[in-house]
Design a protein that fits this description.
Chain B: InterPro entries: Fe-S_cluster_assembly_SufBD (IPR055346), SUF_FeS_clus_asmbl_SufB (IPR010231), SUF_FeS_clus_asmbl_SufBD_core (IPR000825), SUF_FeS_clus_asmbl_SufBD_sf (IPR037284), SufBD_N (IPR045595). The complex is a heterodimer of chains A (251) and B (508). By secondary structure, chain A is α/β, with parallel strands linked by helices. Chain A contains 9 helices and 10 strands. Chain A has a single domain, classed as Rossmann fold (3-Layer(aba) Sandwich). Chain A has helices at residues 42-50, 74-79, 97-111, 119-132, 150-164, 180-193, 208-212, 232-241, 243-250; strands spanning 2-11, 17-26, 31-35, 55-64, 67-68, 82-85, 168-172, 199-204, 217-222, 225-230. Chain B is built from 13 helices and 23 strands. Helix content of chain B is 24%, strand content 32%. Chain B has one domain (2-128, 142-502). In chain B, strands 5, 6, 8, 10, 11, 13, 15, 16, 18, 20 and 22 form an 11-stranded mixed sheet that branches. Chain B is an alpha/beta fold. Classes of the chains: A alpha/beta (251), B alpha/beta (508).
């Protein structure tokens, strides 16, 4: 699914190097967790995967289903199946959430040469996904993310993920700002989407989320490189010992 | 959101720099010599078969005009206009007042068809097709949907003359008078004499005075007491002839307890030189009457370098003359090289209400100085102003608004909200409010915001698969939603598309 090879990247404007040779492979259907202390480059990695032009790749490559995606813009990557669940979802005033969902779904369908979704079919899909995420249809008439609580914003992200049916889901600190009930709803939503054809890259600071979304592999990102990889037990080890121990080993 | 998708498709179909309505109609024209003088005014008056009182009125305005100077207080910049280098009258040769559509030059009918106004069809359908199961309102996503069939009576003005007015018979049945003002001067002189110049006096301002001297055509509407006008009334203005100014005059009177909704649309061919449009619109609402006036202004804005385009210097004013009367202005301004326009309300009657809803989009080198005046004179008068300015390219967009309460205007209330949205780093947005309360019980509120489409918002939309230009159109349509909702349904859909097209190429 995803193959990151010796990826070096810097902030386009001022040149600070953030990623210094990331190597990572994610198989079809795999849930890979990326953990690491603050400032290790976790969020940067998510932005570079989704094509944000504030960052510049200086070396290495990102292969998605065997092909480099570095030349594709964010909308093209999205249409090919890359989805980023934002740590801080943006507000779009005056644009009803339903309108946004339909615009996004049809833009992707159009890019892939598929016919536009007719309204009844669209409504049917939204109703089904919203019910699973315990989202009230009334909320979807409100402008996207405007006045949404932290939990509502994150659920709206997962709703978009469910409707857009991506192949590679990158989730950036999805657990931040969620209480335990909201976290369970979000995790259930993600688990329902797990399949042999869909991979996840779950970026998180804490092990807590991984109790609910159980990963196949865990990778520790530190100072722009993956310094250790393992199974879900690695996350537990981090929880008990902190990052210092592993950083010490790697140094 | 198909409206947005359609916008994009439409934009793709035309070249980046191409104005959709930029075509020219080649027909034989009857054009008066250039220049503004007594002879020209007499010629216009004679062409229209006007009575002496009208000619006298014009000549008096002309005498006034010669003593006046062009206003310079607006935040717009343009070289001095040579008023002697303009044709003040141009009319298609084949017609001197058509009795029916059959007498109208087919070229003109084709022009209006290109503009999306099937005059002929509407005439044929008149009285035959009833609005069937009209699917109005919002669909489940809160998007505006257009009714399948809508009936709008249209008066089409081509350069200096009105070429066709549809649905005349049906309107007559309801007692509504809707005709070119040149006809009204002949057929209803008592009404025209009573109301013309009663809202915008002859000497009001430089351009209004000029219009009073040389106005050529425009629409006249009279709705009798207690009548709710059975359909939307609409005028389509088209400047075609080169070096021609358009000076239309519109007069709408809603008698006691009546209601009328009026729409106005404007386009012009693409030309290198600037063309002048100096119109006057007067609205009079008597006791308990309501007038809704909507404009979608899409005059040619000039090219990317600012060459060509219409100078739009317009005086629009409504007089809430009677108690409990109501006037609302809704405008979508996307065209013109320069816009100088302040649709206003004089709230004379007690408990009267004035509203102004505006979307002003500027791109390229366009300059807009627009806003409103709410003059509270009567007791318990209320007004509401919602202005949304969108600036892109190297344009400048100014909101200028005056709200005042007279000493006798007890309990006057105003709410003003001015929001500006900037796209790119080379454009400007300015807000200039004038607020004056001479009555201690008046309550005026003013809110203003300026925002920019952020890179974060754009990235977010693109990450969901929405291409950049479609994302901008989506965000902008969200920004202007409050105002779009005030437009009649078929105009709202049109306006959404137009805004998308106007912002084409605004990021790069």
């Amino acid at each position: 699914m995803l193959e990151i090879k010796n990826l070096h990247a810097r902030v386009a404007e001022e040149g600070t190097e953030i990623l210094k040779g990331v190597d990572l492979t994610v198989q079809d259907g795999e849930v890979a967790a990326i953990m690491g202390p603050n400032g290790s480059g976790k969020s940067t990695l998510s932005y570079i995967l989704s094509g944000r032009d504030d960052y510049e790749v200086t070396e290495g490559d990102i292969l998605y289903n065997g092909e480099s995606i570095l030349e594709m813009d964010p909308a093209e990557r999205a249409a090919s199946g890359v989805f980023l669940a934002f740590q801080y979802p943006l507000e779009i005033p005056g644009v009803a959430t339903m309108t946004f969902l339909k615009t996004a779904m049809n833009a992707q369908r159009k890019a892939r040469g598929e016919a536009e979704l007719m309204t009844p079919e669209f409504i049917r899909r939204v109703k089904a996904s919203a019910a699973e995420l315990k989202i009230d249809m009334e909320m979807l008439k409100r402008p996207l993310n405007v006045g949404f609580s932290g939990g509502e914003k994150k659920r709206a992200e997962i709703l978009q993920m469910a409707l857009l049916e991506p192949k590679l889901c990158v989730m950036d600190e999805t657990d931040s700002g969620l209480d335990i009930d909201a976290l369970k709803i979000v995790a259930d939503g993600v688990n329902a989407l797990r399949s042999a054809e869909r991979s996840f890259l779950v970026i998180t600071h804490y092990q807590r989320l991984l109790d609910y979304i159980v990963p196949d592999t865990v990778h520790v990102l530190y100072k722009g490189r993956i310094i250790k990889s393992g199974t879900k037990d690695l996350a537990l080890q981090l929880e008990n010992e902190g990052y210092a121990q592993i950083i010490g080993e790697a140094a | 959101m198909p409206a947005v998708q359609e916008t994009i498709d439409q934009v793709r179909q035309i070249d980046v720099d191409q104005y959709k309505y930029g075509f020219e109609t080649l027909i034989e024209m009857d054009v008066a010599p250039k220049g503004l003088n007594e002879e020209i005014i007499k010629l216009i008056s004679a062409k229209k078969g006007e009575p002496q009182w009208m000619l006298d009125w014009r000549l008096e305005a002309f005498e006034r005009w010669k003593t006046m100077e062009s206003p310079d207080w607006a935040r717009v910049d343009y070289p001095p206009i040579d008023f002697q280098d303009i044709h003040y009258y141009a009319a298609p040769k084949s017609m001197s007042g058509p009795a029916s559509l059959d007498e109208v030059d087919p070229e003109i009918l084709r022009t209006y068809e290109k503009l999306g106004i099937p005059l002929r069809e509407q005439e044929i359908l008149a009285g035959v097709v009833k609005p069937q199961n009209v699917d109005e309102g919002e669909d489940e996503e809160g998007r505006l949907t257009a009714p399948n069939s809508s009936r709008v009576a249209v008066d089409a003005v081509f350069d200096s003359v009105s070429v066709a007015t549809t649905f005349k018979k049906e309107l007559e049945k309801a007692g509504v008078i809707f005709m070119p003002i040149s006809e009204a001067i002949r057929e209803h002189p008592e009404l025209v004499k009573k109301y013309l110049g009663s809202v915008v006096p002859v000497s009001d301002n430089f351009f209004a005075t000029m219009n009073s001297a040389v106005f050529t055509d425009g629409s006249f509407v009279y709705v009798p007491p207690g009548v709710r006008c059975p359909m939307e009334l609409s005028t389509y203005f088209r400047i075609n002839e080169r070096n021609t100014g358009q000076f239309e005059r519109t007069l709408i009177i809603a008698d006691k307890g009546s209601y009328v909704s009026y729409l106005e649309g404007c386009t012009a061919p693409q030309r290198d030189e600037n063309q002048l449009h100096a119109a006057v619109v007067e609205l009079v609402a008597l006791d308990d009457a309501e007038i809704k006036y909507s404009t979608v202004q899409n005059w040619y804005p000039g090219d990317k370098e600012g060459k060509g385009g219409i100078y739009n210097f317009v005086t629009k004013r409504g007089d809430c003359r009677g108690a409990n009367s109501r006037i609302s202005w809704t405008q979508v301004e996307t065209g013109s090289a320069i816009t100088w326009k302040y649709p206003s309300c004089i709230l004379r009657g007690d408990n009267s209400r004035g509203e102004f809803y505006s979307i002003a989009v500027s791109n390229g080198r366009q300059q807009i100085d627009s806003g409103t005046k709410m003059i509270h004179l009567g007791k318990n008068t209320t007004s509401r102003i919602i202005s949304k300015g969108i600036s892109a390219g190297q344009s400048n967009n100014t909101y200028r608004g005056q709200v005042s309460a007279n000493r006798k205007a007890a309990n006057a209330r105003n709410f003003t909200q001015c929001d500006s949205l900037l796209i790119g780093n080379d454009c400007g947005a300015h807000t200039v409010p004038y607020i004056e309360a001479k009555n201690a019980t008046a309550q005026f509120e003013h809110e203003a915001t300026t925002s920019k489409i952020s890179d974060d918002q754009l990235f977010y939309c693109m990450q969901r698969g929405i291409p950049e230009e479609e994302a901008i159109a989506l965000i902008v349509n969200g920004f202007v939603k409050d105002v779009i909702q005030q437009l009649p349904m078929e105009f709202a859909v049109e306006a959404q598309k137009l805004i998308g097209i106007s912002l084409e190429g605004s990021v790069g």
